[in-house]
């Protein structure tokens, strides 16, 4: 459902973005970082697009309502100091308002520091000494050949259907396949391998994460960031996998009643996991 972006809503959003990422006087500003406000490089426009394309209900409606409240309070027509006080006042008015202000602020700041321009650069990167992508993505052979469904209906026969190819689904599919079962894994996300990764945050959010990475809970208190690509979270997360120390497993058994962890049987399970990874 697209938002009716009236001029009042756009003006309120522009004023909010410029309060969160303002233009400040600074004598020593070789990169123009302090002088540049959010709307100078289109953050308000991209934020509006993100609200429509990446945020589910009721979060989207809640943020639009927040912008309507700002419009009624004249956020776009008051000096910066008054606008900041207005935002604080709205945030203090209710728990829901505070959550909405925080969520919108996080979205704006993420875009300010991650959104690339047409040349693949962000104007704020030089000021924070971030070089951006250090090498070009190189196409590489993809070892998996997914069956891409391009028709309205498709019938496949299998013993097991697994939804999702992440840490749970991928492991289960592999184990069942080794036991001779015919397995179909359904994955809604695309297939991206090492050669596709271009070291750009916004590209990654848009292509590898569920709902673009901006997916707060209904009460806007927690941001759920989950992979939505072949491999799920195992593609987008960094992992450090070590053998669980024997003393930890003994503690789990003795203090917490998790039987079967301290013996040789569980040791063999760990051997299998470490050999696989």
Question: Care to describe what's here?
Answer:
Strands 1-2 form a two-stranded parallel ribbon. Strand 1 (160-163), helix 6 (167-178) and strand 2 (183-186) form a beta-alpha-beta unit. The relative contact order is 0.10. By secondary structure, it is mainly α. The radius of gyration is 24 Å and the shape is elongated. It has 10 helices and 2 strands; from the N terminus they run H-H-H-H-H-E-H-E-H-H-H-H.
Task: Set out the fold topology.
Blueprint: H1 7-20, H2 43-54, H3 59-72, H4 80-91, H5 95-114, E1 160-163, H6 167-178, E2 183-186, H7 201-208, H8 233-236, H9 246-256, H10 264-276
Parallel strand pairs: 1-2
Helix pairs in contact: 1-2, 1-3, 1-4, 2-5, 3-5
For the largest beta-sheet, the strand count, sense and barrel status come to: 2 strands, parallel
How far apart lie the N and C ends? 43 Å
Task: Determine the structural class based on helices, strands and strand pairing.
Answer: mainly alpha
Low-confidence stretches: none
The percentage helix is 40-55%
Task: Give the helix tally.
Answer: 10
Task: Give the C-alpha Rg.
Answer: 24 Å
Number of strands: 2
Q: From the structure provided, what is the oligomeric state, counting identical versus distinct chains?
A: single chain
Give the topology string: H per helix, E per strand. HHHHHEHEHHHH
- The portion of residues forming beta strands comes to under 5%
What overall form do the CA principal axes indicate? elongated
Strand line-up of the largest beta sheet: 1-2
What is the arithmetic mean of pLDDT?
Answer: 90
């Amino acid at each position: 459902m697209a938002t009716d972006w009236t001029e009042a809503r756009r003006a309120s959003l522009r004023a909010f973005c410029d309060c969160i990422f303002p233009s400040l006087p600074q004598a020593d500003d070789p990169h123009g970082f302090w002088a540049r406000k959010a709307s100078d490089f289109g953050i308000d426009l991209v934020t509006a697009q993100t609200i429509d394309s990446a945020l589910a209900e009721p979060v989207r409606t809640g943020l639009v309502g927040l912008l309507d409240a700002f419009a009624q309070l004249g956020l776009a027509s008051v000096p910066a100091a008054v606008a900041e006080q207005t935002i604080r006042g709205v945030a203090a008015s209710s728990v829901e308002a505070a959550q909405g202000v925080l969520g919108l602020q996080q979205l704006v700041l993420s875009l300010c520091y991650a959104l690339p321009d047409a040349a693949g650069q962000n104007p704020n990167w030089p000021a924070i000494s971030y070089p951006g992508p250090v090498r070009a993505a190189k196409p590489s052979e993809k070892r998996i050949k997914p069956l891409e469904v391009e028709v309205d209906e498709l019938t496949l026969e299998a013993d097991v259907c697994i939804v999702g190819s992440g840490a749970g689904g991928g492991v289960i599919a592999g184990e069942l396949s080794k036991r001779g079962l015919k397995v179909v894994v359904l994955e809604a996300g695309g297939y991206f391998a090492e050669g596709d990764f271009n070291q750009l945050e916004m590209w990654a959010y848009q292509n590898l994460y569920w709902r673009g990475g901006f997916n707060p809970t209904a009460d806007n208190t927690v941001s759920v960031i989950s992979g939505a690509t072949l491999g799920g979270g195992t593609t987008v997360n960094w992992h450090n996998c070590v053998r669980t120390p024997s003393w930890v497993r003994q503690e789990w058994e003795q203090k917490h009643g998790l039987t079967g962890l301290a013996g040789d049987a569980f040791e063999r399970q760990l051997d299998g996991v470490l050999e696989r990874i």
